Amino acid sequence: MPTRRARIPATKYPVERFTLGNGLRVVLTPDRSAPVIGVAVVYDVGIRSEPEGRTGFAHLFEHLMFQGSENLEKLAHFRHVQGSGGTFNGSTHLDYTDYFETLPSNALERALFLEADRMRGPRLTEENLRNQVDVVKEEIRVNVLNRPYGGFPWLTLPPVMFDTFPNAHDGYGSFDDLESATVADAADFFRRYYASGNAVLAVSGDIDVAEATTLIERHFGDVSARPAPERPDFAEPDLTAERRTSYPDKLAPLPAVASAWRVPDPVTDFTGYLPYVVLAEVLTDGDASRLVERLVQRDRSVTSVGGYLGFMGDPFDVRDPTALLLQSHLPPGGDVDKVLRTVDEELDRLATDGLTDGELARTQARMATHLLRDTDAVLGRALRMAVLEQQRGEPGLLNELPRLVGEVTEEQVRAAAATLRPERRASIEVIAGGGR
Amino acid sequence: MSVVVETGTRPLPPLGPNRRLKLPTQAERTLGNGLTVIAVRRPAVPLVELRLWMPFGRTHLARGAMLAQTMLSGTATMTATEIAAELQKVGGGLSAGVDPDRLMLSGAGLVTGLDRMLEILADVLTGAAYPADWVETERDRLVDRIQVAQSQPAHLARTALLKRIYGRHPYALQTPEPDQVRAVKPPALRKLHAERVHPAGAVLVLVGDVQPERALDAAERALSGWNGDGHVAELPPAPPLEPGPLLLVDRPGAVQSSLRIALPAVPRTHPDHAALQLANLLFGGYFSSRWVENIREDKGYTYGPHSLVEHSVAGSVLVAAAEVATEVTAPALLETMYELGRLAALPPKPDELEQARQYALGTLQLGMSTQAGLASLTSAYAGNGLRLDFLAEHAARLAKATVDDVAEAAARYLAPAKAVTVVLGDADRVAEPLAALAAVRTESA
């Protein structure tokens, strides 16, 4: 008897879209359940767009956007957001860079002012640049150089899988490249990529649509109009032969391995792409998932395993080319070859024998919970909708994701599993170098 | 030199009127078995968050860690895989965690699955079986995880700090050694479960798209059969900080030093707490603080310095933490002590205090604006004997703390003379420069 499946619920966040005269696209999604708002500005430029010889520049530039702007001294942005009871940050991704605040809703106009001011232009000075190069170097030391498994696999696997600079290079950047960056580079980067026509503003939460629209026109309406630059084609052919490398990590106590396979274009072939998002969860979400059962519990050949879409774990925020990743940490002396062989065997078994009764439905129910939980945070909605608008012109897709994930069929998941062949796989192994 | 823009003179828009702190609808019931259940309504998304806080002080370190690692490994009626699969069916999941105060089971799922999640929770609480094969697998995994933790500088610095500030108190050691974990066998786990996993003193928090009274009914139906009245262990009060030489823990070859500074603090209910929280914000508790603006935005020594008042059942402590480049370890410590001293010796500026106050009040609103945030806050409060209505009281105290109150709190709690300082870093390179600033005692990691 087939198991009864949980009904997948949906959210109904309203979505308003419009475009200002200068080309800035705007998404509003009101929700008055708590007196807080999320404000996000997303620029269509990321790690893939940085010039050769300037690795890490997109991220460095993100830091410079916080260093003062037309009407704001250095430190003023931070102080105004936090002095309004809010928090802020920014982050640099492969295909976009976001800037965001979440605040009590009485700070709406102030937040719009702050974002508009830096969209007009940051204060790019030699002193601020040198200061932020130092800060970024410390960020890289904290997250990569001074810890075990630093940059694994998001920085270490792309150069195995890809051949072209945009897709393969280190997005955090080399210290040499960071130190070579100039104010003129930053000014060029701003002029080219931080154009009103290349940005999306999203505001979520406790807003009145008419009032927010007026305020947005007031603050962003006279930002000078510049068109979006033409987006280069970052396409690369799929692998036809397995690629595999390894490197020693002297801080790492246990071996680790990560593998990636190319997946369909997340934007132009969303229907073909979604089954891979579900497949990653069937394989690795929780104690009842395929690979946890097999590798962790039965074989004890790994101590943990995870699977996800996108090198930065961003299934719905990334463009082609991207990948499905599986990564494992092994016990001391573990056998990486054996782990990779077992994964192949499990993928084969899934493709051939299909799923067990209820396996797909329960995975989809769990995915719905994760998706809904992320949208409960007002800022999560603004950020996701801004990127969905930018990459797809479809911010309302956020409401549809739980249902669409729930409509993926067993046949689609099997077919997706069947494509994850060893000859299409890129892998990187961390050789444990010693512990303390 | 400003190459992109001319500076302008557009005025900063004022803030609208402050929104009053509005507490969500909630209900509370203490069941016959002693379990307290608190249900809070936030219907935003059709989910429910679950937190079960069980007092767990003075537990054997390795057994406690293993109990959390294996609690969901099976019951009389279900295997671990079945537990996970049954929870997944209703979009749910559970995980267990332990610290020196409490054992916590937490999770979230579709609200339509609340009854089923509670049913499975009850099965685990009353019938966790600790099957031998699972315990063996999980034991090895925990050992692996501890080894990975021990290779992380943040973990090593934390371990050294706890040992330094807590001495013989149970808080001093929070991670077991691999050999201690290897010695834990299933009978010891079953015994520990029988002794310490009970409803008396435990608090279950349910937050989400629920009618609070109905959620309490559901919890009562599922959990009233959970019984047991083994012993309760009181934690002794945490000892006061004892300042002394800077403790330098050697980590040869480290490209950064981990700075940790502990300072005295008071619990949430203490009359000084609001003023202390504000003083901490001024020092290093948020980005727009003196410390961050100094050692990051001015000097570029570090990426993410932060300071935080940490509350535990047996006491509170303020911890400031920064990872700094090895070559600027001593200069970073110098600036840190300077900023602490300046705050302890001179009153803050009124506008600086207003900024911190707005931040403290605003982030209270933000913290309550998600189901997950409300659940964690309600549970953390309840674990310390407080309820959500304390938020309003705390907000009122934050609103009325004066410059003098904050200056007084800074002098009392943030004085560098009261600091306990631990640095994890490459002793060959940092010992001598640090010795110019403080007496230094060096240990190996």
From TrEMBL, chain A:
Gene3D superfamilies: Metalloenzyme, LuxS/M16 peptidase-like. PANTHER family: NARDILYSIN, PROTEIN YHJJ. Keywords: Hydrolase, Metalloprotease, Protease, Zinc. Residues 224-246 are annotated as: Disordered. Residues 26-142 form the Peptidase M16 N-terminal domain. Residues 181-366 form the Peptidase M16 C-terminal domain. It comes from the Bacteria. Residues 228-246 have a biased composition (Basic and acidic residues). Belongs to the peptidase M16 family. It holds the Pfam family Peptidase_M16. This is Insulinase family protein.
TrEMBL record, chain B:
It comes from the Bacteria. Signal peptide: none annotated. Residues 187-358 form the Peptidase M16 C-terminal domain. This is Insulinase family protein. Residues 69-178 form the Peptidase M16 N-terminal domain.
